[in-house]
Amino acid sequence: MADVRPAREGVTMAAVPSVRQRPSGDTRGPGGRGPTRAQRRARDIARVRRARHLIQAGVAVFLLVVALRHHTGESGSTASMDAVCPFGGVETLVTWATTGELISRTHPSNLILGLAVLVAAVLVGNAFCGWICPFGAVQDALAWLRRRLRLPAVRVPRRADRIMRYGRFVVLGVVVYASVHTARLWFADYDPYATLFGLGWLFEFDPAAMWPALLITGLVLAASLVVDRFWCRYLCPLGAVFSLVGHLSFLRIRRVPSTCTDCRLCDRTCPVGLEPSRARPFVSADCIGCMDCVTTCPVKGALGVDGPVLAGVPRHRDLERVSRIRVGR
Ligand code: SF4
Ligand code: SF4
Hints:
This protein has 329 residues and is mainly α. The chain folds into 2 domains: 51-245, no CATH class; 250-329, Alpha-Beta Plaits (2-Layer Sandwich). It has helices at 37-72, 86-99, 108-124, 127-132, 134-148, 158-164, 167-182, 192-197, 200-203, 207-226, 230-234, 237-245, 265-269, 292-296, and strands at 3-4, 154-155, 252-255, 303-306. The protein starts with a strand and ends in a 23-residue tail after the last strand. One iron/sulfur cluster is lined by residues 253, 269-272, 274, 276, 283, 287-293.
């Protein structure tokens, strides 16, 4: 079903045209000195990526400290991982809205965090998945490892990819239904994010009780090694919520067809397998806002962040006039 070939070839600095390869019009700085445009672009890519990975790592460390304190501190004295998960807000929302009660193992903090990330998604798009989610960071690390080991990636055919993305909505429906009917945080027993970062496998290892979670986590990690962001693309229920909210985002990545040269470099960088080169004019609501395509695009004004976007309608004719987030070019 899937063909095997290198994916995200464009993510390495090698994909940015070198000085010898540089396209016509790729100029040096004032006076013929300083970096070429290709070099400036490579620097921009590295800078944005470094910032993103630093934030992801910081959040991951924070959550591991929370889990560590919870397992090693006095019983009941420290918050558990469950208390700092925005998806817990989604899981308890129906019960809370209909009965005023929270399902077991959820807290008001889940509702507050859930609301905060949804408001953020409306304001700035789905940057949570690209910049904050620690499980997204783990998948990025696995993709990085695969490239370092020069392992082949599996690129899921476009049609299968489109169908498999509905898997997130199926998981979301099952989780909400089960949470309401069991009145507990049902998904925590299967969630690979909670399994990995909750550190139960380290402090309360019980294979008889934990085997479904461990099996799912192992399979998801193995799949993420060969398919970039496998969990985010096909299974994450919070991603399903973001995908719906993404249609209302005020800030969205937009392509300007009249400027775009159809080189498709941007497609090769996208960690969630989108095709910014085909955006008309906005990229899919599944975009995680990583900015890789924007920093990689060699044509000024072809791809950028447009805003404010109201209900999917661009308010500007071209990117030169919009509040484009510039990255040094
Ligand atoms: S479309 Fe661009 S910003 Fe969105 S996920 Fe893909 S590469 Fe990142
Ligand atoms: S948006 Fe930029 S990188 Fe993507 S196809 Fe157009 S010119 Fe190439």
